Amino acid sequence: MRVTLEIENEKINDFITLIQSLDYARISEEIEIPDWQQEEVLKRLTLLEEGISSKRNWEEAKLEIFKK
Q1: Burial code of 54-64, b = ≥16 C-beta within 10 A, e = fewer?
Q2: Residue 25: CB partners within 8 Å, gap ≥ 6?
Q3: Cβ of 44: how many Cβ atoms within 10 Å?
Q4: Could you state, in order of their start, the residue ranges of all structural domains in the chain?
């Protein structure tokens, strides 16, 4: 079973020390990127390289998204 926790930055070192003291738990920093997501990124990069798609900065995108 995997559990995801959100811990305040100033408390993370104490939490890691606690988890490391347990013999039945481990901390893994492995991040698994699903195949579909990797394929989507490659597809979008190809579209950009071929000039079929364009990009814009986050500030421009945010204005369009939140004006609705």
Answers
A1: eeeeeeeeeee
A2: 19
A3: 13
A4: 9-66
How do residues 20-63 score in pLDDT, each as one tens digit? 888 887 777 767 889 999 999 999 999 999 999 998 999 999 99
Among all chains, which residue has been given the structure tokens 């305040």?
8
User: With the C-alpha atoms ordered 43, 44, 46, 47, is the resulting torsion angle positive or negative?
Assistant: positive
Backbone angles phi, psi at 45, to 5 degrees: -65, -40
- For 46, the token pair is 């190809």
Q: What's the predicted TM-score (pTM) here?
A: 0.45
What span, in angstroms and rounded, lies between the C-alpha atoms of 63 and 23? 49
Distance from first CA to last CA of the chain, Å, rounded?
40
8 A C-beta contact, residue 20 and residue 12 = no
